[in-house]
Amino acid sequence: MTTSKDNPAAAASLLAEQGVRAVRLLFTDLHGVARGKDIPVGHFAGMCEEGVAFCAAVMGTDLHHTPVVGGEEGYVDLAIQPDLKTLRQVPWQPEVAWCLGEAWTLDGADHWPACPRALLQRAIDAYAARGLEPIVAPELEFFLAERDPSAPNGLRRYVDEFSRVYTVGAVSDPREIVLRMLLWCDELGLQAFAANHEFMNSQYEINVKHSGALDAADRAFMLKAAVKEIAVREGMLATFMGRPFADQGGSGFHLHLSLAGPDGRNAFADEGGPDGLSPLAAQFIAGVIEHAQGLQALLGPTVNSYKRILPDSLAPTHANWGHDNRTAFCRVPNERGSRARVEIRTADGAACPHLITAALLLAGLDGIERELTPPEAVVGDSYRMDDAHAGSTLPANLGAALDALEADTVLTERLGAQLVATFVAMKRFEVERFAKDVGELDVDVVTTWEIEEYAAHL
C-alpha cells in the first residue's frame, strides 16, 4: 500500500518505486460488478485531477449487455474520482495497483445519483450527525467450478464430495487455490483472516474482519473481484450468485452490523437492558424489519436469488428477528458487550456490497429516528411457524420484491429516486427477459439462462 493518500503525484511516484507500472481504477455499478480502466502509472496523477470518464449508461446496463437506462440522455459521461486511500499493490500481479473510485457528474459538481459508494458515504454521514459510526463485518460464500460442456449447465464443481464442511487442506482444496486466495487477499489489505470449505459441495468462505462501513464494503467488493480474478487465472470460475446448482443450497452474503457511540464503545450493548441490548439496537432491528420487503429487492437482486430463499435453507423466508437464530432475517448472536451486533442473513453473494450496506443502514436509521419497537423475537424454527408468529413473508420472486421496493416510499426516498429508478428499470427488464426466454420460475431448477446471465459476472 502507498502512504501518499492526498497527493496523486507523490502516490504515483511511490508506486513506481515499488515496481508498479499500471493502476487499475475500479468502481462498483449497481450490480456490484467491478468496472474500470487500466492506467499507466505515469499518467495516473494527471487523470486524478478531473477524474476518468466513462459512459454513464454503464450504471444502467443489465448483465445481458443492454443499456436499459442512459440512452434517453444521449449516453452522457460520468467521471470516476479515485480515492487514494484505497490504493494497494496486487500481490498476484505486482506490476499493478488497485484503486477504488466514486462516480461524479462530469463537471465535478455532485456525485452521480446512481453511485452506490457515494450513497453509502451519505448513510455514514447521517449516522455521524448523531455521533454514531456504523461498524460492519461482511461474510461471503462462493462456489468454485470449471467450465465443462458435458456437465449440467456447463459447470463442473471443483471438489464434488459431501460433508466437506469446515475441512481444509488437499481434501477440500487439492490445487491450493482457496489457500492462495486467502493469502493474497490478506496481502491485498482485505484483512482476510480465515478460509474454509463451506457446507455445500465446492462452496467456500473467506472471512474478513470488521471495520467502518465504507472500508468494510470496499473490502467485500475487492474480495469478490479478487476471488473471481484469481479463479480465472487458475482456469476456474468463481461465482457468488445465489444458487448456481439445483442439487445444492445457495451462497449467502451475511452482514454483521453494529454502531460505535461517541465514546467509541458499542452502542448496541447495554448490560442493564433487555437481553443485554440497548434501545438503539432494538430500534435499529425494528427499522430493518419495517423495510424488509423493499430491502429484499436489493438483498436478493436476481431471478436466481429466490431459489435460495426457501424453508430449511438457512436463508430466512420471513421478516423477523431472533437470538442466535439462523432461521431469522435479523439474527442477534449471543455475544454481548463490545461484540454485540445484528446479523442480516437474507442477502446472497450477487448483491452489491455498497448498496446493501447503505440500504440496511438507512432502514435501521429510520427505526432509530422514529424510535420503532421490534416485534417479539422468534424462538425455534421460524420455517415451521405460521405468519402470525414468524412475521410477514418475504417476496417470493424478484418481480414482487421490486414492487415492494417501489411501494416503500420512505426507503426509496432515502436511497435516492434516480438510483432506485435505475435499479428497478434494469431489474424489471431482467425479469421480463427471463419470463420470455424461460417462462415460469421453478425453484427446484437452475436453468442455463441463469448460469449464462449470472455465474461469470456475479
Could you characterize the architecture of this molecule?
It is a single chain. The strands form two sheets. Strands 7, 8, 9, 10, 11, 12, 13, 14, 15 and 16 form a ten-stranded mixed beta sheet that branches. Strands 1, 2, 3, 4, 5 and 6 form a six-stranded mixed beta sheet that branches. The two termini are about 25 Å apart. The protein has two domains: about 100 residues, Glutamine synthetase, N-terminal domain (Ubiquitin-like (UB roll), Roll), CATH 3.10.20.70; about 325 residues, Creatine Kinase, Chain A, domain 2, CATH 3.30.590. The relative contact order is 0.13. It is built from 13 helices and 16 strands. With about 450 residues, the protein is α+β, with helices and mostly antiparallel strands.
Gist?
The protein is of the alpha+beta class. It contains 13 helices and 16 strands.
Q: Topology of this protein?
A:
Blueprint: H1 8-17, E1 22-28, E2 34-40, H2 41-50, E3 52-55, E4 77-82, E5 88-89, E6 96-105, H3 116-128, E7 133-147, E8 155-157, H4 177-187, E9 192-197, E10 203-208, E11 211-212, H5 213-233, E12 237-239, E13 253-260, H6 279-290, H7 292-299, E14 321-323, E15 330-332, E16 342-344, H8 353-369, H9 387-390, H10 398-407, H11 409-415, H12 417-437, H13 448-455
Parallel strand pairs: 1-6, 14-15
Antiparallel strand pairs: 1-2, 3-4, 4-6, 5-6, 7-8, 7-10, 7-11, 7-12, 7-13, 9-10, 13-16, 15-16
Features:
single chain, 458 residues, alpha+beta, Ubiquitin-like (UB roll), Creatine Kinase, Chain A, domain 2, ten-stranded mixed beta sheet, six-stranded mixed beta sheet, 16 strands, 33% helix
